[in-house]
Amino acid sequence: MTSVFIAVVSLALFWMAAFTLWWQMHAWRTPEVLASTRFSRPDGGEHVSFSLLLPARHEQAVLDHTIQRLLESTHTDFEIIVIVGHDDPETSEVAERAAARDPRVRVVVDTHEKKNKPKAMNTALPHCRGDVVGVFDAEDQVHPELLAHVDHAFRTTGADVVQGGVQLINFHSSWYSLRNCLEYFFWFRSRLHLHAQKGFIPLGGNTVFVRTDVLRGADGWDPDCLAEDCDLGVRLSSVGKKVVVAYDSDMVTKEETPGSLMSLLKQRTRWNQGFLQVYRKKDWRQLPTFGQRLLARYTLTTPFLQAFTGLIIPLNVAIALFLDVPVGIAFITFLPAVTALVTFVFEVVGLHDFGKQYGLRVRFVHYVKLIVGGPFYQVLLAGAAVRAVWREQRGRNDWELTTHVGAHLTSAEATRDLREDVPA
Amino acid sequence: MTSTLPAVTTPKVPAQRQPAPEARSTSRTTPPKRLRSSRPDLILCGVLLVAILTVQGWNIADYPTLSDDEGTYLAQAWAVQEGRGLAHYTYWYDHPPLGWIQIALLTWIPAALSPESMTVGTMRAAMLVISAVSAVLVYVLGRRLSLPRWAAGLGMVLFGLSPLSVVLQREIFLDNLAVMWTLLAFALAASPSRHLWHHFGAGIAAATAVLTKETMLFVLPAVLITMWRHSHRDTRKFAVTGAVTACALIGLSYPLFALLKGELFPGSGHVSLWDGIRYQMTRPGSGFILDQGSGSHGVLQSWLYYDRVLIVGGLAGALLLLVTWRWSVTARALAGPSCTVVVLALVAMRPSGYLPAMYVIQALPFLALVLAGGTASVAHAVLRRRRSEAENRYVTGGRYALAAVLAIAAGAYVVPRWYDGARTAVTTDANAPYQAASKWLATEVEDPRGTRVLVDDALWLDLVHAGYRPGLGVIWFYKADLDPAVTKTMPGGWRDLDYVVASPTVRRDAVDLPNVRAAMEHSTPVAVFGSGADRIEIRQIQAASGGVR
């Protein structure tokens, strides 16, 4: 009886781990798939105009540089709309100065009492003049040729949404930033493309471009959702809008990981809670095929399944080793662990590829950190998942991070805490 | 917030298909993308398959002579089916058990329908399935390695119809199963779609091959070479790492199995993987293969007796391909098989190694492919090399004439020999003595259940079906001396036995087995089947006083 139970649990875990691995490796399935994940080369024509939203909050330190960099874009038809809060004079000042220097920059003031990113962007949406609305964060490093590539992608694919790559870069900062970077790498490099292909996609928080009419038709972003980006993607793909994902290592938007373990935990909690909210909104039920709905269900509950598997797998192996179960059953209990091991190996290879793609030197110690840090990161993810469920249960769905911006944080930490760099 | 967007009917976004950038490092001619939908390939492969199965299947039970090893593997498969463990006696890690577990699965349904059919002669039919799959895989691999259709077909014929193949592939040997898995590994490694999970599957197949027959370890580097050549630069690191990981993880399941059973390391009162490996590594060598009079030389002669074409031609083909590596596309495409042949040849040349007769089985498909590839290379050189549009008609005619002469000469040499081989295989009845002995023991002995008899494994299952007690009633003769669980039931040595079935194997090995030798010495033949060295005697033990026990 125990044996049967263990076998069933093990097989379920195995299938979960195997599917996740299968999807994680999507981009590298064949050379053709890998080639198709890139932007195709622009042909020089420019027919799409852009309105680039740049929500900024207490980010006076980095905002100006970001605006300057965006203005260097090779594309000729775009406007930048900086969204600042009415209670944030420092950032407003930086934005106004930039607007005075260049007519392509405009400032929109968000006067909501409780502020969050979706509200800010919804405030700016009526002011957008371009055919396409793009979203960036205040500290993003955007490649000058990105807009030209996105323009080309819109024209050649007939897409309603184009999601560009976002990549955390500072893998050497700490053990968790290494794993965090690699998570982004696998997500944007590989997994998102599978979602685009299957017609169900949780969008990323920035470097995302949506046709203005489509966005307005969808009533913009959900101001009450903690993962408004994910929600938008789910709503748009649920009604059959075409989403195209493209990832080029020299065209990605580069970002940095949260500055401390605690802020990573909070960010992840918000992300998970957002996923949970999107799941409960049930927009994904409109997806036409059973497979898509299953993928939606699975993707939106992944953080919780992940937390669960991370704790069960070691327990399972321990049972196999120390309890007296038949050898056949013991073998089955090893299946999820073996799959996890394969995932580990692919992560090591992924780290190598990451280093190659970005010209970064990955040292031996980083590989060691990656492997040793794996279980701890799993604990962190599990913690964030539990925390998200707990907060959702108690009805605490405020933007946790904004409430923590206070005197006890240095301005750099505050900036980091505010960044919305959640990839889904 | 609910969406107000109208639903559209085409939600599924097709992947953007873009051609992969061609890597310059792996220049090769492109194989057909989908063999399954290529009618000429299907027809050719199908026709050859029917021919191969006819020659291999006809008279399969009666030729070649039943061997003790076949009986052992089948008896172990029977033990698996019956839930008696991994072997009919104590499993002692002599080989990984996956091979006969597969045989058990393969024979499960017929054995369930008719338990008496679980005997060596009958169950050889199951090997036809393996032969068929392997032959098709040889063709597929040949095509995937860019051989022209006719050359892939030639490889399949060489592999399936060589008299050496016909003899060895009919027998229930683990090597035949391992060859199938190895071929699958090669075919997946050379997958034209260069799919990550195909390469991963190649790793799993390769590990399965090794766990089926451990000597396949030698072939792994060649699988890796093939995979390296066929993977794309951009995805190679994922593909190759994945395959190696898969192979290692599956391979490690064997030591893990031993660990779970507490039999990884030696200890008193139990067998261990460690001891099993040590036994295999320290088996007395059979001498240098080219040394006249050595055991290995005898084995080589026995192979050459059945077929020189495949062995000599295959080795020559491998050398030809290695020498022409720089100029010949075919040579580079066939790097995997030619490396396999060379590695296996070098391993066979170890002066101190033990060379079993079935060793050649794992080389057969690669000898065949390499010979076919060499032939294709020669054909290309004769027909196409330095040929220009403006070539003189007579020169072109001369090329075709030369090709025709070569083909006819090769045919004239090979066909009569192979015809003889095939005729022997489909007409000879080599197992009449075994069948007669089996029948005698089933009908002439009054109380099978209370009778103890030493046999070789070729007859073991026959006697089990005839009512003898498996294990201690019908005793695999080696165990009477080597298995403590059996010897402790015969405190009187030969006196506790009733019969010895003296087959050639028993007579050969009795020399080193005191109990068996004593039983032979204290017994007299009561029935003899066949004559000469191949005869089978049923010998009844005589009590010390001279009477029958």
From TrEMBL, chain B:
A GO CC term assigned to this protein in UniProt: plasma membrane
Positions of transmembrane segments: 42-61, 97-113, 125-141, 147-166, 173-190, 202-226, 238-257, 309-327, 334-353, 359-379, 400-419
Subcellular locations according to the entry: Cell membrane
GO MF entry, a single one: mannosyltransferase activity
Keyword Transferase: yes
GO biological process: lipopolysaccharide biosynthetic process; protein O-linked glycosylation
Membrane topology note: Multi-pass membrane protein
Keywords: Cell membrane, Glycosyltransferase, Membrane, Transferase, Transmembrane, Transmembrane helix
Domain ArnT-like N-terminal: 108-258
Annotated region described as Disordered, given as residue ranges: 1-37
Any Pfam family the entry gives: PMT
PANTHER family: MANNOSYLTRANSFERASE YKCB-RELATED, MEMBRANE PROTEIN
Protein name according to UniProt: Glycosyltransferase
Highest classification ranks of the organism: Bacteria, Bacillati, Actinomycetota, Actinomycetes, Kitasatosporales
